[in-house]
Amino acid sequence: MAGAARLLPLLLLLASHAFLSSAAPVPPKRIFLTVQANAQRRRARAAAAASSANSLGLLSQFRGATSGLFSSGAATPAATGPIKYWGGPVVVGNPTVNVYHIYYGSWPSGSGQDYINNFVTSLSSDSGAQGASSDPTVKGWWAISANYYESNNAGKKNVSSKVRLAGTTYDSYSYGKALSDSNVLSIIKNKIGSGKPFAYDPHGIYVLLTSKDVTLSSGFCTKYCGWHTYGYVGSSPFYYAFVGHHGKCPTSCGAKSVSPNGNPAIDATISTLAHEISEAATDPDVRSGWFDSNGEENADLCSWSYGTTRTTSNGALYNMVGLNGMKFLVQQNWDRQLQKCVGQNAVPGGTTPSPPPPSPPPPPGTTKMNCQCTCASGSSPMNCQCSCTQVA
Questions:
Q1: Model-level pTM?
Q2: Which among 72, 131, 70, 124 has a CA at the least distance from the CA of 97?
């Protein structure tokens, strides 16, 4: 049995690279971000685990998820965990994780791309530039991802704590408005290489962001809100993601009626983008890096969980602040050490906090006493009577 367990990571890696000789895109890790889809998948798990000690907790979380999208402002998923490392790579960066945006379709000025770009830039910006010191930061959120690592013959390396928006470009419907997964791969590959907008980058994550009028035949808006996978330029692998415009399906993909930046569709899109970038960094080869026994990656375990929120002047909820004080409502992420959803890196530097030291013993010759006193009210000076016993 132990031998079989050791073989599992290798088998997963071999399976994930079986597409090397194929021109078809590698099947992506779909992110079923709709509350309804998450609830349907996880309800089956809860039924199977009904006799376990934590089944009531799971069921109560389902009720939160199925009571209506954002009905309480903080729908909670049924996180299963614990998340484990299966032997594959992460995006360690050199020295940064480079993110490339391809805005596909119609993205005139003021369509929200400035908010999207601000968020990605904020992932590793200095906290001092992010507004009030008491506000949780976008940088602090990314630090959760930076605690994930890969381990191989070259040693142990973490996901980089530095993220850089390395480039943006536009594509005006080169494959039309109705796309397939293969089209997504082709659009991105057409942007990579000599004389093209982006250089090939083994430390990069290329993201296709589509405008509101673009569809994806594999189920955008009906089955998922985004996904990530990997492909090849020649024989060289690269990592990429798809995130559709959430204005196309505001109910199923989480757009609120009031949002931090006054653009509900884009604000919701940013949360999905965060989800995909994090998972593309911690499990880039899909099902070979970090995931739990059900195949859920780190951000999957915290879909629709927002933790503590604050309120903006326009009445919108937010839970973190980026550059120039820009506010965002982004899902929490799974802390691999605490094995729970958190909004900021709760274990700075990747170490578990030490318990407080025990109280020092009393000095020699000191007697410790336990006293109870009764004092008469209104007297001046106060008149008290005490009864004391020596503590062993």
A1: 0.73
A2: 124
- Amino acid (one-letter) located at 63: R
The identity of residue 29, as a single letter, is K
Q: Each residue of 47-83: b (16+ CB within 10 Å) or e?
A: eeeeeeeeeeebbebbebbbeebbeeebbbbbbbbeb
Residue 71 to residue 82: CA distance in whole angstroms: 28
Task: Tell me which residues of the chain have a pLDDT lower than 50.
Answer: 1-22, 33-78, 127, 348-357, 359, 379-380
Question: Residues 6 or more apart from 200 whose CB is under 8 A from it?
Answer: 192, 193, 233, 236, 238
User: How far is the C-alpha of 253 from the C-alpha of 271, rounded, in Å?
Assistant: 10
CA distance 124 to 137: 10
Crossing angle for the helix pair 264-282 and 138-145, nearest 10 degrees?
Answer: 30
Q: Which two tokens stand for residue 104?
A: 């596909």
Between 264-282 and 113-122, two packed helices, what is the crossing angle to 10 degrees? 40
The pLDDT of residue 66:
23
Per-residue confidence (pLDDT) for residue 14, from 0 to 100: 36
Give CA–CA dist 264/105, Å, rounded: 19
In angstroms, rounded to a whole number, what is the distance separating the alpha carbons of residues 278 and 300? 10
How far apart (Å, rounded) are the C-alpha atoms in residues 114 and 245?
Answer: 14
User: Using CA atoms, how far apart are residues 328 and 308, in angstroms rounded to an integer?
Assistant: 13
Q: What distance in Å separates the CA atoms of residue 177 and residue 89, rounded to the nearest whole number?
A: 34
Handedness of CA 312, 318, 321, 323 (dihedral sign): negative
> How big is the chain, counted in residues?
392
pLDDT tens digits, residue range 21-51? 335 667 676 555 443 344 333 333 333 333 2
